[in-house]
Structure formats: structure tokens, C-alpha cells
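User: Fold this; C-alpha cells only.

Assistant: Input:
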Amino acid sequence: MIAASTWTVASPAGGLASATPSFTDTTAKTWLSGGTAGQVVRVTNRITTSIGRIDERSFDVRLVQR
């Protein structure tokens, strides 16, 4: 069960930011906004479980013009 969740956006993020993060017992989510088209930015989520275990996962986001 997830007890805590923290999102980070690697620097330099070019204005990309995490907004409205939330989590349930089994999932963690956030919305990403901003940034500069053409950049690739690493986003990381670190969760702590109810028994104190820590898991960290990262992924790269390629920013494109909408």
C-alpha cells in the first residue's frame, strides 16, 4: 500500500512542472505542464509503502508543441 508519493522533474526542466500530484493505495499520478518543445526531461516518482519500503521509478518525456 502506498503511504507517500513524491514527484520530481530533473533540472534543467525548461519550465516543465508537476502539478496536482495524488496517490491511492496502488497508484501514483501527476499532471505535467509547461516546458520547452524539443527538450527531453526525466520525471521521477518515489513512493514509500505502508511498511516503509521505498521504490523509485523514472521516465523520460519528450516535449512537443501542441
